Amino acid sequence: xxxRICLVFFSQLLATTLWSALPASAQSIRVFTEVIDVxxxxxxxxxxxxxxxxxxxxxxxxxxxxxxVVIFEPDHHRFIILGNNYVATEVxxxxxxHFLESAEQEAQKLIGEYSKSxxxxxxxxxxxxxxxxxxxxxxxxxxxxTQLTLLGSQLDYxxxxxxxxxSTVTQEYLDYADWTKRLNYVLHPQPxxxxxxxxxxxxxxxxxxxxxxxxxxxxVEPRVKLRAVHDYxxxxxxxxxxxxxxxxxxxxxxxxxxxxxQEYQQFxxxxxxx
Length: 274
Fold this sequence. Notes:
Elements: H1 3-10, E1 28-37, E2 45-55, E3 58-63, E4 68-73, E5 78-82, E6 87-92, H2 93-115, H3 120-133, E7 138-142, E8 147-151, E9 155-163, H4 167-187, H5 195-206, E10 209-218, E11 224-233, H6 238-252, E12 257-258, H7 261-273
Parallel strand pairs: 6-12
Antiparallel strand pairs: 1-2, 1-11, 2-3, 3-4, 4-5, 5-6, 7-8, 8-9, 9-10, 10-11
Helix pairs in contact: 2-3, 2-4, 4-5
Signal peptide: 1-26
Protein name: DUF2057 domain-containing protein
Keywords: Signal
């Protein structure tokens, strides 16, 4: 696993919020997300940014660098994806889970192959994959129940957050984070399975803790440490509503080219290879 790939895609283990007592009844929420490589604290390197809108029962997640918007529709148990060049697809939660089952089987095969090698790098990859399939963390809650730490043999999480008076906001956010992590693994080829992140989310649910910041440290050489920060607002700006309206119009328009999910995956691979 190259260090650069590890840095870019391991950042998707993170999901954080800067959230101050938003009511559960809030209809629209805007989230600006930035992921930063802090492996060298004196030289932090921005890795990615995105903007996410919770609006009218849907979640719109837009990554400007990819030109892609992913729409989370929990009531319909699906995602709709609008890519650049007016291509679109949809994928059900059941399909996402099916792809993950296949990925787990492939991961088991890779573990077997890596384990046969005497190379330290291969053995490190085997240990990391095994941990991803079956993460085991030591959990610590401190600082007035606002700081959650998960310590594992291959990676650690440190979360600072807010305990919400109403758990509805936390539950809805973490449900979105769960499914988005699953989809990201399937949609964009990457070396990190979603299981560690899902276990973190479960711990956050248990403590009704909505995160402000999340840091993840990967136990590899050289060490990888990433930080994600989300800036939340309980109001959408006019430009935000315009973006949502534009995406919805595009999806209903004749210029959009619909693909199967498998075709869209191949489209993304072709884009990367250009």
